[in-house]
Amino acid sequence: MSTSRRDVRSSTDSQSKHTSTSNSQDSTTEEVQRAVEELTQNLHIYGAESLHLWDDQGHRVSLPGTTSSPAKGPALPADFQPTSLRASFVIPARPVISASQAPNSTTATTTPTPTPASNDMLSMFTGKSAPAAEQTPAEEEAVRAEDEAKVLKLLEDNNQSATPLVVGGDDADDESVGFQTSSDVYSSSVGSFPESFLGSNANYEPKAPPPSYLRRDELFAPKQTRLEEILYGLERMSGGGLKCVDKVALKKQKGVIMDMLKQAGSNMLEGKNVVNISLPVRIFEPRSMLERICDWWAFAPTYLNRAAQTSDPLERLKFVITFAVAGLYVSAKQEKPFNPLLGETYQARFGDGSQIWCEHTSHHPPISNFQVLGPNNAFNYWGFYEYTAGLKGNSVVGGQVGPNYVDFPDGHRIEFRMPQMRLGGMLFGDRTLQWEGVMIFEDKTYEGVQAEVIFNPGARNKGFFSRRTGKLDDIAGEIFKVAGSPSKKKKDTEREVLATISGNWLETVEINGTKLWDINQDTPSRPIPLEKPLDSDCRFREDLIWIKRNDVKKAQEWKLKLEVRQRADRKLRQDIAAALKKSNKNS
């Protein structure tokens, strides 16, 4: 069975009841050896395969264990004689089984059969002594089952933690018995965990300790699917669009524009791209932009699968348009996601089996590539986004510049572009949010077939003295076929209208009068993080983990550390490129 340290490492911060009070090196080492023997003999309680130990100097020894029965504790190497040590267990990952693979069952996971535990270790975990000998077999079985359930529950609750288990040393306490069930800190001496973007040899800083890995309850917490949950803190305005009414979020964002102006100066006032400006972490949500962009794809399992089930190119285009518009409200948030680091990845899946891959492939300009592969390769949705943002008057206008492609097994391809998002009230007035601009769709297989979806179409027809018609969040458009050369000007081409599009990105999408999406009836799908992702996954970002745990100070410190590393890496790439260019010029 495979193991994954980044997913299922488990250890706890505690002092052992075996701690020696003697000042003798030999006595302390002897106590450490005794504690290690008991740990290795009882690894089967954890379902662990091995035990990793580190001494005072950072040297590591790995000891094998067993997942089925107690094993004899192996002796420590002669040169491994620490006065204190830290340890972590490696626990096999629980297999994930899809609903289609599980016979006569809809369960998504399997759980291991409990293994009887030793009385000593049960006492350490549950505070409960061994059953009395005079108990009946039935009573003994009931007590044993109850104790095993408690042990498994404690282990499951803590199986994402990777903080040190301290045995012996000057900080040990004879009164301390048992284990803590959780800890937010990975280590009080090591500067980073192995998957860190800083590397595993970072210097330890007390004000920025490395966080423990995200626990299962943090990582796999259900995401919002109900409308009121998704739009929490946002209120729909009578004229269209959304207004932020979350007082806590508004307070956190106070003064941010002035911070941006100090950094960007005239670039920001001129509307130039300022997406790489370093912002205070207090305004961030605990997600990377790589995870945030998946919000737009919340209806991929619904509409892209339906598109794959038809061979009619016009019907496919209708479903792709509906997919692209329906998911826009899911990403409507006042908080900003973390800018991805170069090489950062995100892997997830939808409930229908669609697989998601995202990777940040360019630091400057900031670009992320993505791919969503449907179940049984029903569709292949892929492309890239270049993130842009600039201050325009009292608003920040941002966009995702880049193509979105939807490919089908028969060779049919449809391309579209995302609209822009406007955040208003950045300097004064209400803080508002709305999508704007035009989404362009083009059938790359059937020449000349295109579509336009216009956001806030009433503004386009408004003359100098006329009133705005409709709402800010209305949409309107057409699916049409262009006759003539694409190089000709629009007035020289003829458009054959194939279908009309109407609705509202906060209400419905209708094509030719048929309602294809209703925000109050259709439930979005939310991505489920992969059990065992790459080490570059955004779940290992220390700043993101700390903000998820509401520790803004540590999150800010880690954000600055990662940004410094990013700048250093970028300078190194630039220096190498300059040296290569000079070398090629001289050769």
How would you describe the overall organization of this protein?
- With 587 residues, the protein is an alpha+beta fold.
- The strands form 3 sheets. It has a 6-stranded antiparallel β-barrel. A 4-stranded antiparallel β-sheet has the order 2-1-3-4, with helices on one face.
- Strand 16 and strand 17 form a beta hairpin.
Topology overview:
Elements: H1 5-8, H2 25-41, H3 43-46, E1 50-54, E2 60-64, E3 84-90, H4 119-126, H5 137-158, E4 167-168, H6 216-219, H7 227-230, E5 234-236, E6 242-244, H8 247-253, H9 256-264, H10 266-269, E7 284-288, H11 289-292, H12 300-308, H13 313-326, E8 336-338, E9 345-349, E10 355-362, E11 367-373, E12 380-392, E13 395-401, E14 404-407, E15 413-416, E16 420-424, E17 432-443, E18 449-455, E19 474-483, E20 494-504, E21 508-511, E22 514-518, E23 528-529, H14 542-548, H15 552-586
Parallel strand pairs: 7-8
Antiparallel strand pairs: 1-2, 1-3, 3-4, 5-6, 6-17, 9-10, 9-23, 10-11, 11-12, 12-13, 12-14, 13-16, 14-15, 15-17, 16-17, 17-18, 18-19, 19-20, 20-21, 21-22
Return Rg in Å: 29 Å
Structural class: alpha+beta
Report the average pLDDT across residues: 76
User: Unreliable stretches, pLDDT < 50, 5 or more residues?
Assistant: 1-25, 65-74, 89-133, 158-182
Strand order of the largest sheet: 12-13-16-17-15-14
Largest sheet: 6 strands, antiparallel, barrel
* 3D shape: globular
